[in-house]
Amino acid sequence: MSTRVNLKDSTRKDVISGPDNWYKIVLADGRELSITPGLDGPRQQYAFVSVKGAGQGMVVRYQRYKNDNRLNQGWPIGEKGYLRCWQNVVGNMSVNVGSTIQETNLFVSSLEDYCYGLQAEQLDDGRVSLYAYDREGKLRGLRVGQQAVSLVSDVFPIGLDCAFVKVSNAISKGNF
Fold first, then answer.
1. What pTM value is reported for the model?
2. To the nearest whole number, what is the mean pLDDT of the chain?
3. In angstroms, rounded to a whole number, what is the distance separating the alpha carbons of residues 6 and 14?
4. How many domains does the chain have?
5. Quick one: pLDDT band at residue 66, thresholds 50, 70, 90?
6. Nearest to 94 by CA among 11, 176, 7
7. Phi and psi dihedrals of 41, rounded to 5?
8. Mean local confidence (pLDDT), 114-134
9. Alpha-carbon distances of 54 from 27, 29, 34, 70, 136, rounded to whole Å
10. DSSP code of 90?
11. Is residue 12, in this structure, part of any structural domain at all?
12. What CATH number did the domain enclosing 45 receive?
């Protein structure tokens, strides 16, 4: 009988779901995953995920299944999970992290149809290797590009080396 082990954040505590558990995704060099607004203005339905300097990243929370708001669900290592994010640039609303229909870039959207899920494997020192699923259910690597975080090979996927840094606390009370 195997024991399910949950993904750990930067302090080696379980990454769990719920409104009191918000994280930033931080790269090894301190930059953070962030949102770059799309080109469709106020009717914006999606925006690319990019990388910005420390303190400028989006805030995300984990969901075990698509549209699942149950509390305290851990993210089993090697299993599919979903992220919801909040950042002021998209109008103070919670949106989904997914991949574009062309399967080239990671992006955020209010359209749930494009949310195919993510997978993370635990690395040393509270770091993880993050991957994305495409619309065909293939696991793809992630690479930081000039304009956006891109999906790469499904033959030899290389995950994005990052850490989930919990930012919600007693002061914020999870009110992002």
1. 0.88
2. 83
3. 6
4. 1
5. confident
6. 176
7. 60, -145
8. 92
9. 9, 9, 10, 30, 34
10. G
11. no
12. 2.80.10.50
